[in-house]
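Q: what sequence does this backbone want?
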C-alpha cells in the first residue's frame, strides 16, 4: 500500500468520545496463552468457574499483566500454586507476575440465572448456554479477552443436566460430568458451553479425506421433528465448502444447539454452533419459505466460519469484516448455488439497499472497517456484514475467478492458525494476482455510498459513457476520495439483441469516460450489471428505455432493476404530482408476468412494489422531504392500479402457481408460492379479501396461511379479525409462530392504527418482552411500518422510547440495536425530527443507561 492513500483513507476519527477504542492504538498482548483448563460447577444462582491457564510473556510487547473480567466474584487466585491477591476493578484485574511462563489459577462465582443480557453464561428456559462474541468471555472468568490471544481449551462441566457440551471433541463423561477438548487454538470469543435437558437429531458426514464426523442438532424435547432441514443444510454446506473452497471440517463432532433466548441469529463457536431457535426449527406447518431459506443460509454461514473466522480469526475487533464480510459472501455464493443466482442477487441487493444504504446515508454511517468504537457490539452492522461482502464481490470481479481462488488458497495457507488483518487479506490478493490494491483499500476505510452519475454520447458508431463518482460526507469524514468501481456494462441494439456482452469498466478517477467503437446504431446501455458495485446509479432515462431493458436485458439483475426503477419513477410521480401510473410501466409489467420462460421467483420479485422506506429514501435523495402517509397512500393506490390493469392475468396465475401435492421447501416450489402470493396481494385489492379468506381456511403450510392472513388484514376495517384470533388459538403453543402473529397484525395495520395495536399487544399475556425474538417481533414490526412508525403525533416514537428505556437495563445489546429505528431522522420534516429528538433525548436521559445504548443514541443525535 502506498503511504499517501493509506493516510488519506484513515481520515479524522469522528469526535473522539470518552471510552472509545481506536484502531490506531492496537498493541500486541503482553502475554500469550499456551493452554486453558476450565472447570464449571453449574448452578443457576451460583456457578463456580475454576480456570488454570498457562501464560507466557510476549517478549515483543512487554507490559504489566492485566486480565479482563466483569461482574465476577473472585473466590481465590494463585500463580504457580501460590495464592495471590490481584487488584480487581470494574473491568478486570492486574497482578504482579513472574517474568517467565507461569500458571494462573482462579476461581470465580457467577449467577447465570440473573443474566438477562444474554452475554456470558446465562439461562434460557432452564438450559445453560453461553454467548461470548464479542466480549462475553470476561463475564465467565478473568482472561485476556481479545481475539489475537489464541489457545487450546480443555473444559470440564459438572452439572445435574443430562447433556453437557463444549467446544472440540468429547474426551470423557460420567454421571454428572463431561470433559471436552478443543485442540485448535482459538480466541475466547469462540468458547461455548451448553448444558440442559436436550435431545439430539443426529446424522453423520464423511469428509473428502475420510474423516468421520458426528452431526447433532440439539433441541428441547418436543422439537425433534423440526430439525431435518437444518441437518440437511449443514451437510450441503460441508460438502460445498470442500468442493468450492477446498475446506474440510476438522473435528470428530459438529454440534448445533437451538436456544429461544438469543440476541442475534447464531454464533459460530468452534464445533458448537449456538443458534437462535428461529434459525433451526422448521416444519411446513410452522415455518415459511423465507424461514427455510434463512435457516439454510445461516447454517451455512456459521459452518463456513469454521475456516473464515475460526481457523483464521481477527487480530482485533476493527477487523470484524475480515470474517463477517467474507463469510457473508460465502453464504451468498452457497445460497445462489443451491437456489438461483439471479434471485439471490436481487434479494441481496434489496437487503443491502434497505439496511446498508439506509445506514450509510444517516448518522450511523461508518466504514466497513471502523476506526473507533465505544461498544463493539454496536458494530455488527449491515455495513460490516453486507457492504463487507460486496467489497469481496468487487475484489473477485476485479481479479477474476481464478485470481480469487488463488488468493483464497494463499490466504488459508499463509494465515491458518493466525489472527489476521485487512492488510493481510489484501496482501494475499496482491501476492496471488500481482495487482496493486492500494486504492481499492479505500472501500474499507471510507464510509458512505458512492453516487455514480452516467451520461452518454453517440456519434458515428462511437458510443461513449461518461462516468462521474462522488460520495457525500459522512460523520467524521467530510471529504471523500475516488474509489475503484468495477462497472459491469453491456450494450443492446435497438431491436433488443446484445451487441456488446458484459464488460467490466474499471473506474478509478473522479471522472472517466469509456468508448465503444464500431456500433451500427445508438445502443441501449445496461449499466452496473449484476449490481457490480455497491453504489447509487444516477442516470436520467425514459420510461420507454427502462421498459425496453425490462423486456430485453440479458442480465437478470438489470432486467429486474429496470422494472424496479420504472416502478419507483411511477411512485415518485404519484407522491409528488398525484400522477397516474403510465402505460409503459403497466404494459411492461404485464408482458413480464405473462412470460412463462421466466422463473416464477424472478417474476414474483418483479411484481413486488418498492417498499415505503425505500421510497422515503429515494425522495429524500431527490431533495423532497418524504411524507410517510402520502407514500403509503400512493403505494396503495399503485397496487390497486396494477391490480386493475392485470385483472385478466391474475386469477389464472394464482391458479397456475398452485402446486399439487404436499409442501416441499425447495427453491422451485418456493418460487411458485412467491408468485402466487404476489398475485394474491393484488387480487386482494380487487376482491376485498375473498380469495385470501378462502386461502386462510384451506392452506396446509405456514407460507400460504400467513401470506393469506396478511392479505386479509391489509383490507382493513376489521377484516381478518376473526381469522387472526383463530390463528392465535391454533398456534398459541408454538412460540415461533406466535412471534409471527405479533408481527403480522402490526405490519398490516392501517397507518393510524399501528401504534395502538402495538401498545395493546404489549399488554398481551404472551408479550414476554425479555425474550429478544418477541420484543423484536412487536417493535421491529412497528419500526418497519414507516407510515405507522412516523405518525405525525409521535405516538409510535414515544411507545418505542418507553420500551427501550425499560429494556435497556435488562438487555443493552438488543436495546441498542433497536435504536436504529431512529437512524432515518435526517430525512423527515422539522416536526417529526423534533418528536424523534425528544424521544431519543428521553432515552439518553434514562438513569444508568448502558454504554451500548448511549453510544447509539449519541451518534444518532450527532453527539
Ligand atoms: N458472529 C456471529 C455471526 O455472524 C454474530 C454475533 C456476533 C452474535 N455477536 C453476537 C450472535 C452476539 C449472537 C450474539 O454469525
Ligand atoms: Zn458471521
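A:
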Amino acid at each position: 500500500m502506498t503511504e499517501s492513500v493509506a493516510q488519506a483513507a484513515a481520515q479524522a476519527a469522528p469526535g473522539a468520545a470518552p471510552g472509545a477504542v481506536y484502531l490506531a492504538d492496537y498493541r500486541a498482548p503482553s502475554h500469550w496463552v499456551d493452554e486453558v483448563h476450565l472447570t464449571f460447577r453449574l448452578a443457576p444462582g451460583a456457578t463456580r468457574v475454576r480456570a488454570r491457564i498457562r501464560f507466557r510473556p510476549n517478549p515483543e510487547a512487554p507490559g504489566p499483566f492485566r486480565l479482563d473480567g466483569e461482574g465476577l466474584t473472585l473466590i481465590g487466585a494463585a500463580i504457580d500454586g501460590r495464592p495471590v491477591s490481584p487488584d480487581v476493578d470494574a473491568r478486570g484485574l492486574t497482578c504482579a507476575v513472574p517474568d517467565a511462563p507461569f500458571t494462573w489459577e482462579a476461581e470465580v462465582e457467577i449467577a447465570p440465572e440473573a443474566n438477562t443480557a444474554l452475554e456470558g453464561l446465562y439461562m434460557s428456559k432452564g438450559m445453560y448456554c453461553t454467548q461470548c462474541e464479542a466480549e462475553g468471555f470476561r463475564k465467565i472468568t478473568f482472561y485476556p479477552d481479545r481475539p489475537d490471544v489464541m489457545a487450546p481449551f480443555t473444559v470440564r462441566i459438572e452439572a445435574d443436566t443430562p447433556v453437557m457440551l463444549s467446544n472440540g471433541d468429547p474426551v470423557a463423561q460420567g454421571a454428572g460430568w463431561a470433559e471436552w477438548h478443543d485442540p485448535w487454538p482459538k480466541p475466547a470469543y469462540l468458547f461455548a458451553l451448553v448444558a440442559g435437558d436436550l435431545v439430539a437429531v443426529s446424522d453423520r458426514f464423511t469428509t473428502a479425506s475420510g474423516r468421520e464426523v458426528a452431526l447433532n442438532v440439539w433441541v428441547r424435547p418436543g422439537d425433534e421433528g423440526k430439525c431435518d432441514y437444518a441437518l440437511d443444510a449443514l451437510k450441503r454446506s460441508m460438502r460445498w465448502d470442500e468442493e468450492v473452497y477446498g475446506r474440510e471440517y476438522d473435528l470428530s463432532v459438529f454440534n448445533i444447539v437451538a436456544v429461544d433466548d438469543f440476541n442475534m441469529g447464531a454464533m459460530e463457536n468452534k464445533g458448537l454452533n449456538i443458534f437462535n431457535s428461529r434459525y433451526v426449527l422448521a416444519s411446513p406447518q410452522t415455518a415459511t419459505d423465507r424461514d427455510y431459506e434463512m435457516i439454510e443460509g445461516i447454517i451455512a454461514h456459521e459452518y463456513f466460519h469454521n475456516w473464515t473466522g475460526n481457523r483464521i480469526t481477527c487480530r482485533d475487533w476493527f477487523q470484524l469484516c475480515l470474517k463477517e464480510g467474507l463469510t457473508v459472501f460465502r453464504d451468498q455464493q452457497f445460497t445462489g448455488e443451491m437456489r438461483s443466482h439471479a434471485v439471490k442477487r436481487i434479494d441481496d441487493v434489496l437487503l443491502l439497499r434497505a439496511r446498508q444504504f439506509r445506514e450509510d446515508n444517516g448518522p450511523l454511517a461508518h466504514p466497513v472497517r471502523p476506526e473507533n468504537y465505544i461498544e463493539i457490539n454496536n458494530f455488527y452492522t449491515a455495513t460490516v456484514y453486507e457492504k463487507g461482502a460486496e467489497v469481496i464481490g468487487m475484489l473477485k470481479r476485479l481479479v477474476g475467478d481464478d485470481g480469487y481462488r488463488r488468493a483464497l488458497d494463499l490466504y488459508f495457507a499463509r494465515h491458518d492458525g493466525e489472527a489476521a488483518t485487512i492488510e493481510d487479506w489484501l496482501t494475499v490478493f496482491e501476492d496471488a494476482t500481482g495487482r496493486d490494491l492500494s486504492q481499492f483499500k479505500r472501500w474499507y476505510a471510507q464510509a458512505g455510498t458512492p453516487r455514480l452519475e452516467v451520461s452518454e454520447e453517440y456519434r458515428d458508431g462511437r458510443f461513449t459513457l461518461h462516468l462521474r463518482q462522488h460520495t457525500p460526507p459522512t460523520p467524521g469524514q467530510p471529504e471523500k476520495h475516488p474509489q475503484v468501481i468495477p462497472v459491469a456494462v453491456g450494450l443492446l441494439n435497438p431491436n433488443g439483441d446484445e451487441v456488446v456482452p458484459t464488460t467490466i469498466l474499471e473506474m478509478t478517477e473522479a471522472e472517466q469516460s469509456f468508448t465503444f467503437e464500431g456500433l451500427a446504431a445508438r445502443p441501449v446501455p445496461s449499466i452496473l450489471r449484476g449490481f457490480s458495485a455497491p453504489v447509487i446509479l444516477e442516470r436520467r432515462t425514459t420510461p420507454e428505455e427502462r421498459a425496453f431493458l425490462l423486456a430485453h436485458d440479458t442480465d437478470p439483475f438489470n432486467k429486474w432493476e429496470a422494472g424496479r426503477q420504472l416502478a419507483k419513477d411511477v411512485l415518485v410521480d404519484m407522491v409528488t404530482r398525484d400522477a397516474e401510473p403510465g402505460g409503459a410501466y403497466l404494459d411492461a409489467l404485464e408482458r413480464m408476468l405473462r412470460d412463462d420462460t421466466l422463473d416464477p421467483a424472478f417474476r414474483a420479485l418483479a411484481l413486488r412494489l418498492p417498499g415505503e422506506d425505500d421510497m422515503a429514501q429515494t425522495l429524500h435523495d431527490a431533495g423532497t422531504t418524504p411524507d410517510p402517509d402520502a407514500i403509503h397512500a400512493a403505494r396503495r393506490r399503485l397496487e390497486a392500479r396494477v391490480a386493475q390493469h392485470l385483472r385478466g392475468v391474475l386469477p389464472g396465475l394464482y391458479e397456475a402457481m398452485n402446486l399439487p401435492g404436499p409442501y416441499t421447501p425447495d427453491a422451485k416450489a418456493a418460487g411458485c408460492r412467491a408468485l402466487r402470493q404476489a398475485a394474491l396481494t393484488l387480487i386482494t385489492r380487487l376482491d376485498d379479501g375473498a380469495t385470501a379468506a378462502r386461502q386462510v381456511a384451506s392452506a396446509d403450510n405456514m407460507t400460504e396461511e400467513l401470506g393469506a392472513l396478511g392479505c386479509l388484514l391489509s383490507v382493513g376495517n376489521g377484516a381478518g379479525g376473526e381469522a387472526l384470533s383463530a390463528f392465535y388459538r391454533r398456534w398459541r403453543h408454538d412460540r415461533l409462530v406466535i412471534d409471527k402473529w405479533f408481527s403480522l397484525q402490526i405490519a398490516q395495520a392501517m397507518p393510524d392504527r399501528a401504534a395502538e395495536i402495538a401498545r395493546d399487544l404489549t399488554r398481551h399475556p404472551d408479550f414476554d418482552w425479555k425474550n429478544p425474538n418477541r420484543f423484536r417481533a412487536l417493535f421491529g414490526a412497528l419500526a418497519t411500518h414507516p407510515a405507522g412508525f412516523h405518525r405525525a403525533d409521535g405516538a409510535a416514537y414515544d411507545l418505542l422510547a418507553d420500551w427501550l428505556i425499560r429494556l435497556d437495563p435488562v438487555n443493552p445489546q438488543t436495546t441498542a440495536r433497536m435504536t436504529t429505528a431512529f437512524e432515518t431522522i435526517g430525512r423527515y420534516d422539522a416536526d417529526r425530527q423534533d418528536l424523534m429528538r425528544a424521544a431519543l433525548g428521553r432515552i439518553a436521559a434514562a438513569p444508568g443507561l448502558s454504554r451500548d445504548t448511549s453510544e447509539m443514541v449519541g451518534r444518532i443525535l450527532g453527539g
